[in-house]
Amino acid sequence: MVVHRQEIQSLHGEGGSPSWTTRARSSAKADSQASDDEAASEVLSHYSSASEGTSVAEEGTGSDTVDEQAQQEEVEDKLKECIDNVLDKSAKTRQVALENLRLAFSSKMLFDFLLERRLTLTDSLEKCLKKGKGEEQSLAATVLTLLCLQMGSGPEGEEVFRSLKPLLINILTDTSASPISRQSCAVALGMCCYIAAADLEDLISCLTCLEGIFSTSCPEEGNSMPAQHSPLLQTLHCNALQSWSLLLTICPSSYIKKILDNHLLKLPLMLSSDNVNLRITAGETIALLFELARDMEEDNFYEDTDLLCTKLKALATDSNKYRAKTDRRRQRSIFRDVLHFIESGEFHEETIRFGLECMYVDSWVRRRTYDAFKEVLGSGVRHHLQNNELLREIFDLGPPLVLDAAAIKASKISRFEKHLYNSAAFKARTKARSRVRDKRADIL
């Protein structure tokens, strides 16, 4: 070719001072919350140590193997406890459990562990989505996405997606639901459909649902300015548009032709939105549609290319001071790439390195796909690129590499070499910044 949020109430006895029973209840509640936090910390510390212990092949002895197995069993016990806690009566405990599962699923491959527990976890997530509020629903949708990613595109992943797809659509289209939960459901619907949609009917129904969400940011007929929405709703529309464009990458050509006819006239109007993320997503989606059209060798699929390039050029050189500096910089960078591609058909290639391998992001289709998985997995995306067969199939990386301890050790640089490299980079950066400062001083 992504959000997590405690309320303490106190009762008072006579004279405005807390009664003994109130203090006892408050103390018990504080102790309960502290114990939840301690449990979360304990799970994460155990999980982190086990991940570090198994991330490379140990050059070792039988005792190392025994230690690894003991660590792995301890981690699995903690994860079983988290799965049980997803159904706890306390909302705080449920959220802590969901957050721990999110971190675990994004940083490690757990197919064998989850295979026999996927139905139990799916039922628990369904209850969180139905009865939970705001943050809990958001976390449940994210964990569902990661569960689907762990299960892959086979029957297990299809089963998870099919069972919760109607509920995701209900929450996403419910205007009275929390915007935060709707945002996560938009991402979950797009990702799960991309991974595990069994047929074209599933794909089209998800595309239609997502289109109905972000299209409310498109200008109404006869109006050239986008509709105004709150920042939370704009983020929802942005997520829906990103998921929609992700699903376009696996659509048949016949459906893409309909999309070109209906949306290449609407999407350029979203470039005038006052939300920087929505402008950027609209620009990237336009570039993606141009790429898909050119791949199908479509001629004259868009007539107002000159006007579009004028808009893109204005965004690529935007220097309005009322926009945040980081927003301006990111917008200019992305729209330069979009403009260059529309004009010349050339894509600015990016190299992603992970372990001993690298991957080339050399098209808008590949960039949209990589960005979608990176958004969900966070820092764990590199581990999954190395070990997740689904991602390796999507990005044509072949089967996971099997390396012995000697090869891994040889590929590592020592701490001293890393220190020398960082020192050289720091000196070079300081010199470059000094030259810029000198030029500024001359101008002043």
TrEMBL record:
Residues 24-33 have a biased composition (Low complexity). Residues 1-75 are annotated as: Disordered. Residues 44-343 form the Interferon-related developmental regulator N-terminal domain. Residues 65-75 have a biased composition (Acidic residues). Residues 388-441 form the Interferon-related developmental regulator C-terminal domain. Transmembrane segments: none annotated. InterPro entries: ARM-like (IPR011989), ARM-type_fold (IPR016024), IFRD (IPR039777), Interferon-rel_develop_reg_C (IPR006921), Interferon-rel_develop_reg_N (IPR007701). SUPFAM superfamilies: ARM repeat (SSF48371). PANTHER family: INTERFERON-RELATED DEVELOPMENTAL REGULATOR, INTERFERON-RELATED DEVELOPMENTAL REGULATOR 2. Belongs to the IFRD family. This is Interferon-related developmental regulator 2 isoform B. It comes from Alligator mississippiensis (American alligator).
